[in-house]
Amino acid sequence: MEFTAQQIAQYIGGTVDGNPEACVNTFAKIEQGAEGALSFYYDPKFEPYVYQTQSSVILVPTTFQPSQPVRPTLVRVDDPRLAIGKLLALYESMKPKRKGIDPLAYVAPTAKIGKDVYLAPFAAVGDNAEIGDGTELHPHATVGASAKVGKDCILYANCTVYHDCKVGDRCILHAGSVIGADGFGFAPSAEGYEKIPQIGIAVLEDDVEIGANACVDRAMMGATVIRRGVKIDNLVQVGHNVEVKSNTVLCAQVGIAGSTTVGEWCTFTGQVGVAGHITVADRTTLGAQTGLPGSVRKPGQTLMGYPAMDSKVFARSSAVFKSLPEMAVQLRQLQKEVEELKKQLQS
After folding, report:
1. pLDDT tier at 40 (50, 70, 90 boundaries)?
2. How far is CA 288 from CA 76, 234, 254, 292, 311, in A?
3. Catalytic residue among 138, 174, 240, 277
4. Does pTM surpass 0.90?
5. Any catalytic annotation for residue 163?
6. Domain 3-93: what homologous superfamily?
């Protein structure tokens, strides 16, 4: 299917700079452009490709001013990344959806299956579980007894929703993700560690996405809750009784210990570690490998390091840390000189 630059501009609210009838039928990175492809440009370091690419149409920022002639048609928008996201979503929505229950899928007799559901070979739906309209379960995806999965969800291969847990509408669970495994609860005793039963559940609200091999543990009592619009990357661990509020992003290998509350619109970048039983204010950003041992009360901060500190303080501290070996040599030399001066003064 082909679209003209003018049609694209109308759909995303942009303006055309060049041939409005230029046609595209595929997408390509700007550095790998080809005739008939749509690309986007937003990072100044990629500007040379604007003049070199073979793509037919490029999405560019409204403020972009080319420094030399441009062959492709430009579509100017406020945010090219957001615009390309809308177009990719449109492209995905035009693909035909799979429907039907494969003979090799297992559906418990008491389960409730909605309309236009797709159950792939070896998908499994347990007793009294519910699957909403238009939801897809790929091979070996499992929904446990009395669990509920909403409408238009995608559960990719080998992901698991444990018993009694709840998944909202339009959620995406990538391969190997686990919703509702037992929280890490053990009580030390003279004989070892006694397991504390985890009788709560895990709840994902609408429009949540869970990355591959990420885990959201069930609560000891009550619920672990992932609020609407949260995006969780691959290999993330969310402990029992945690609440992650709406539109927060947890990047790769983040770990959040139990009973912590994370605010709205937070961003935790790679390998962030968060202690348990604390609160993180709204719109907090934690830089890569930050360790957060205590609560963050003031919203809107950017923190880095361990223990977490203001990112500017961390940057200055890092600069000093790199100089510590030389500073140590200088300090020893100064101590030696001071001792020599003391001896001279005493003589």
Report:
1. very high
2. 33, 15, 9, 12, 11
3. 240
4. no
5. no
6. MurE/MurF, N-terminal domain (3.40.1390.10)
